[in-house]
UniProtKB/TrEMBL annotation:
InterPro entries: MmgE/PrpD_sf (IPR036148), MmgE/PrpD_sf_1 (IPR042183), MmgE/PrpD_sf_2 (IPR042188), MmgE_PrpD (IPR005656), MmgE_PrpD_C (IPR045337), MmgE_PrpD_N (IPR045336). Residues 299-478 form the MmgE/PrpD C-terminal domain. It comes from the Bacteria. Belongs to the PrpD family. Residues 20-260 form the MmgE/PrpD N-terminal domain. It comes from Falsiroseomonas bella. Coiled coil: none annotated. GO terms for molecular function: lyase activity. This is 2-methylcitrate dehydratase.
C-alpha cells in the first residue's frame, strides 16, 4: 500500500489532477490487477450476507416503501428488486435504492471500523444493479466490488467523518461510483469525475443516527448508492464535477472536515494548514484485498455491540437475580461510549417507547436484553412488548458506559491482532459483590471464538429466510451465487431472491 497525503490547496496553486486523491482513486479503479481467489470467495460471502438480511427485512415498512418507489420506475432489462420476481426490472438507480434499503434496514450486514465507521456491503446493491442493467458477467461484478470495497475501506482507514458530524455515506458514495467504473471498464477521466460528483452530492450529517433515529438510517446508504449510479451516468455522458473535490479551497476537507481555512485577525489572508490525512491506496499492480479486513455480524445490532452481546451471554450464567444488581458499568472505547452509549447524551436511548432504529443504537438496552434473554433476535429483541417489560427497564436504567483510554487505543490499533471493539463490564450487586469480565472482539470476528466462514454465511441465510422464501428458491440462489465467477454476461438476475406470489406487502401510494 502507498500512503497519499491529502490537504487543502489554494486555488492559485493549480493542483495537478495527478496529485489529487480522486484521480489516484480512479487509477486504482482502472488497474486491471487480478482479483485473488480468497477475495472472490469473500465477495460471494457478502452477497449471500446481503441477501440474508434483505429478505429478513423484506416486509418491514421502510423496505416496502422503497420497493414501491422503485417499482414506479420500470425499465426493461434493468435491475432486479429483492422479493420481486426477476422478470420485473426497474431503472438501476431505483433498484439500488430499493435493495440498499432492504440490506440496511436491520443493521445486520458487514462492517469496517477504523478512523470512521462503514458498512462496505452497502456497495453491493448499486454495483449489482448497474451490472444487471448493462448485461455484465459475474467476473465483471467481482472486479467492480473488489474496487468498491477497497476504496471504501481505504477512505475509512484515514478520514474521520464522525468527528465533524458528517454521516459515513460520504465515503460510500465515491467508492460505489468507482466500483461501477471498474465494472463498466470506464476510462480514468470518467471515473475521476464520477468520484468527485459522488462525494459532492453525498455530504449529509449524523443527525440521521442520533436522537430520534428514523427509517432514514436505512435509506441513507441506499440514497448514496442511487447518487453513485446517477453520478456515473452523468459523467459517462461527458459531464464534469467540482474539482478538486477533496483538496480545493472550498472543498469538503476545507469547510466540512479538518482542513478548515483560517483568516488573520483582520480577515485579510487565508492560512492553509499542513497535511491532515494520509490515505492508503494499493500501488499499481497490487491486489485489492481490503474486503478481507471487514467482518460481518452475528447479531442484528450496531457493530460495536457485537462483542458486548456475546459478553452478556457469558456473564448471565453467573447471575441468579436481576433485581439484585445495583449498577452495570461498561468500560469501552470513545466511539462506543459516544455513539451508542451514555456519552451520546440521547435520552431516547433510555426510552422504552423508542424506535427500533434508536434501540439498535443503545448499548444500554442491548446489553440488558442480552443479559436477561441469553439470545438476540432481529425481531423479538426489539419488539415494543420486549422493550417495555418492567424488569428490563429497571435493569436497562442501571447501565452506563464510560470511555476507557486503553479500549480507545485498541479500537484504533493498526495491529490486527490487537484491534478491539468490545469492552470491560463491571456488574455490581446490592450486597457489594462484583463480577467483572471483558471481551475484545465478537465471536464471529476473524479473531473471535467462532469466526464466520462460508458455512456460517449459508446458515445465516437459511435462518433469516426460512418461512419467507421457498426451500427451492433458497437452494437455487445459493447454488448460483457460489458459482459467481462463471455467471455469463446478461445473467446476473440470478442473484435476485424472490418471494412466493402474494406474500409481498404493498406500500402506501406516493408520487411515483
Amino acid at each position: 500500500m502507498q500512503k497519499h497525503p491529502v490537504k487543502v490547496h489554494p486555488s492559485k496553486a493549480l493542483l495537478k489532477r495527478e496529485d489529487q486523491l480522486a484521480w489516484k482513486m480512479a487509477a486504482v479503479a482502472t488497474d486491471k490487477v487480478a482479483v485473488e481467489k480468497d477475495v472472490q470467495a469473500m465477495i460471494i460471502n457478502r452477497i449471500i450476507d446481503n441477501a440474508s438480511v434483505a429478505i429478513a427485512a423484506i416486509n418491514r415498512r421502510p423496505v416496502v416503501s422503497a420497493r414501491g418507489m422503485a417499482l414506479g420506475h420500470p425499465r426493461k432489462g434493468g435491475g432486479t428488486v429483492f422479493g420481486v420476481k426477476s422478470a420485473t426490472t426497474v431503472s438501476p438507480e431505483w433498484a439500488a435504492w430499493a435493495n440498499g434499503t432492504a440490506v440496511r434496514e436491520l443493521d445486520f450486514h458487514d462492517t469496517f471500523l477504523a478512523a470512521d465507521y462503514s458498512h462496505p456491503g452497502d456497495n453491493i446493491p448499486p454495483v449489482l444493479a448497474v451490472a444487471q442493467t448493462m448485461g455484465k458477467s459475474g467476473r465483471d461484478l467481482i472486479r467492480g466490488l473488489a474496487t468498491s470495497y477497497e476504496l471504501h475501506i481505504d477512505l475509512v482507514r484515514a478520514i474521520c467523518l464522525h468527528e465533524h458530524k458528517v454521516d459515513h455515506i460520504a465515503h460510500l458514495c465515491p467508492a460505489a461510483a468507482a466500483g461501477i467504473g471498474t465494472l463498466l471498464g470506464l476510462k480514468q477521466e470518467v471515473i475521476f469525475q464520477s468520484i468527485q460528483q459522488a462525494l459532492h452530492t453525498s455530504i449529509s450529517f449524523r443527525q440521521s443516527r442520533k436522537g430520534e433515529i428514523s427509517s432514514w438510517k436505512a435509506y441513507a446508504p441506499a440514497h448514496a448508492g442511487k447518487l453513485a449510479v446517477e453520478a456515473v451516468d452523468r459523467c459517462m455522458r461527458g459531464e464534469g464535477a467540482p474539482s478538486p473535490i477533496y483538496e480545493g479551497e472550498d472543498s469538503v476537507i476545507a469547510w466540512v472536515l479538518s482542513g478548515r481555512t483560517q483568516a488573520d485577525s483582520k480577515g485579510r489572508k487565508t492560512v492553509y494548514d499542513p497535511v491532515y490525512y494520509e490515505v492508503p491506496l494499493p500501488a499499481p499492480g497490487e491486489p485489492k484485498r481490503a474486503i478481507l479486513d471487514s467482518y460481518t455480524k452475528e447479531h442484528s445490532a450496531e457493530y460495536q455491540s457485537q462483542a458486548l452481546i456475546d459478553l452478556a451471554f457469558r456473564m448471565r450464567e453467573q447471575i441468579k437475580d436481576w433485581e439484585a444488581i445495583k449498577r452495570i458499568t461498561i468500560h469501552t472505547s470513545h466511539h462506543t461510549h459516544y455513539v451508542i452509549g451514555t456519552g451520546a447524551n440521547d435520552p431516547q436511548k433510555m426510552d422504552p417507547k423508542a424506535s427500533r432504529e434508536t434501540l439498535d443504537h443503545s448499548i444500554m438496552y442491548i446489553f440488558a436484553v442480552a443479559l436477561q434473554d441469553g439470545r438476540w433476535h432481529h425481531v423479538d429483541s426489539y419488539a415494543p412488548k420486549r422493550a417495555q417489560r418492567a424488569d428490563t427497564v429497571r435493569l436497562w436504567h442501571k447501565i452506563e458506559t464510560r470511555e476507557d483510554a486503553e479500549w480507545t487505543r485498541k479500537y484504533h490499533s493498526r495491529d490486527p491482532d490487537e484491534l478491539s471493539f468490545g469492552g470491560r463490564v463491571e456488574i455490581e450487586f446490592n450486597d457489594g459483590t462484583k463480577i467483572v469480565d471483558e471481551l475484545g472482539v465478537a465471536n464471529a470476528h476473524p479473531n473471535g471464538a467462532r469466526p464466520f466462514a462460508r458455512d456460517q454465511y449459508i446458515q445465516k441465510f437459511r435462518t433469516l429466510t426460512e418461512g419467507i422464501i421457498t426451500t427451492r428458491e433458497a437452494n437455487r440462489f445459493l447454488a448460483d451465487v457460489q458459482d459467481l465467477a462463471r455467471i455469463p454476461a446478461g445473467e446476473l438476475h440470478v442473484l435476485n431472491v424472490a418471494l412466493p406470489a402474494g406474500t409481498l406487502l404493498e406500500s402506501k401510494p406516493g408520487i411515483f
